[in-house]
Automatic annotation (TrEMBL):
Domain of life: Bacteria
Keyword Cell inner membrane: no
Organism taxonomic ancestry: Bacteria, Pseudomonadati, Bacteroidota, Flavobacteriia, Flavobacteriales
SUPFAM superfamilies to which the protein is assigned, alphabetical: C-terminal domain of transcriptional repressors (SSF50037)
Protein name: Ferrous iron transport protein A
SMART domains: FeoA
Residue ranges of every copy of the Ferrous iron transporter FeoA-like domain listed in the record: 11-82
GO molecular-function terms, A-Z: transition metal ion binding
Protein keywords: Iron
């Protein structure tokens, strides 16, 4: 399993709101789709929720400058740490 750094601001990726940014912490899936890893969806990388399609699926993400669409169900297995604006 992939891990980064857990703290109390963690949530699953599917619960982010449009425009929110977070750091990927871990995957709760036993088998992470290879395409996610190839596109930079790795612990420690920043992710931004760009858009949610009608009916809430798929979710359009910006991960280190790469645009990626993933199913909400898959996003629910990705733990992220929300970035706060200071």
């Amino acid at each position: 399993m992939f891990k980064f750094n857990l703290n109390k601001l963690t949530t699953s990726l599917d619960l982010l709101k449009r425009g929110e940014k977070a750091i990927i912490v871990e995957f709760t899936l036993n088998m992470v789709p290879l395409k996610l890893l190839e596109m930079g969806c790795l612990p420690g990388n920043e992710v931004e929720l760009v858009q949610i399609a009608p009916f809430k699926d798929p979710m359009y993400l910006n991960i280190n400058g790469s645009h990626l669409a993933i199913r909400k169900e898959t996003a629910s297995h990705i733990t992220v740490e929300k970035l706060t604006h200071e």
